[in-house]
Amino acid sequence: MPCLNPDGTLSPTARRILGALPETASPEAVSAEVLALETGLPLFRVRASVREALNGGLVVEQAGLLRRTALADDLLAKSEVAAER
Amino acid sequence: MTDTLAPEPKAEPTMPRLGQPAPEFEAITTDGVIRLADYRDRWLILFSHPADFTPVCTTEFIAFAEIYPELQRRGVELLGLSIDSVYSHIAWLRNIDEKMGVHVPFPIIADLDKKVATLYGMIQPAESKTEASRCVFFIDPKGILRAMIYYPLTTGRNMAEILRVVDALQLNDAAKVATPANWVPGAEVLLPAPATAEMAELRMAEHLPGTRDWYLTRKAAPVPEAEKV
């Protein structure tokens, strides 16, 4: 599920996944399996999206646990602003 | 004696084999780029169809969408494939939704370079050199190819049989039993045949009510864990 729309904004799935991930500053991190449970998305979709998010610098992974990056925080904040307009 | 060498064998498309790891792939789908490994820890049915916007395939996609909730209950995902573009897939799925009122909830691989179709032997050249046949691959949570069924272009698949194969494979794993001809969930199952003369002797000595001979013993279907009180 592509994370980024052609205009550089986050796709709905990406917003769902990144929104469920701990923020950059948080000491917490979650696995793809937990993320699938929290978002209600199938595990294969989460894995495919996380891979893309990792490549795009939106997520960092350490020992299989995931956390979003400052770039993801920024894009999420921009999506929320756009949604409010 | 002659110096003439035997002709090099022609490179044939690969055919996957039962009991071996299903060939790994990364493919463009209607849900973006997906790898086979993304399905690890879940069952996967990978299936191919000849072409979008064709009659038999349309009825099959409606039927696959209808059994999708049943497959989900069994922990099974669906992944379609044809040698069409992702735009064709999107247009076809939107058309099925709009004209037939059926939402197709699973992704489809756009295998324009025939990479996945070739890996899985989906192209049967005597039938068509440009379309995939109607193939069904049952891949277990460890990525092992457990069953495959091939149908010709003319013959739509039977969803009851696809569910039956899933049920049989999952029961084989859970209860270490085999399933006889025409087995359906709840019906009697078979004990695996003894593999040695000593085990055959033991099987006969057990005097099990379902034993017809040392190699053929039927027994009642095991009760699924969820139904045990």
How would you summarize the topology of this molecule?
The complex is a heterodimer of chains A (85) and B (229).
Chain A: H1 12-20, H2 32-39, H3 43-55, E1 59-62, E2 65-68, H4 70-84
Antiparallel strand pairs in A: 1-2
Helix pairs in contact in A: 2-3
Chain B: E1 26-29, E2 32-35, E3 43-48, H1 55-73, E4 76-82, H2 86-100, E5 108-110, H3 115-119, E6 134-139, E7 145-151, H4 159-175, E8 189-190, H5 197-205, E9 211-213, E10 216-219
Parallel strand pairs in B: 3-4, 4-5
Antiparallel strand pairs in B: 1-2, 3-6, 6-7, 8-10, 9-10
Question: Can you tag this structure with a few keywords?
Answer:
A: mainly alpha; Arc Repressor Mutant, subunit A; 4 helices; B: Glutaredoxin; 2 domains; 3-stranded antiparallel β-sheet
- The CATH class of the largest domain in chain B turns out to be Alpha Beta
H and E order of chain A: HHHEEH
How much of the polypeptide of chain B forms β-strand, as a percent range?
15-25%
Total domain modules of chain B: 2
Do you know the CATH architecture of the largest domain in chain B?
3-Layer(aba) Sandwich
Strand content of chain A: 5-15%
What is the ordering of alpha helices and beta strands of chain B? EEEHEHEHEEHEHEE
Cα radius of gyration of chain B in angstroms: 21 Å
Shape of chain B: globular
Strand order of the largest sheet of chain B: 5-4-3-6-7
Tally of individual helices of chain B: 5
**Total helical segments of chain A:** 4
Please state the oligomeric state of the protein chains shown.
Answer: heterodimer
Strand order of the largest sheet of chain A: 1-2
Distance between the termini of chain A: 26 Å
Structural class of chain B: alpha+beta
Gyration radius of chain A, rounded: 12 Å
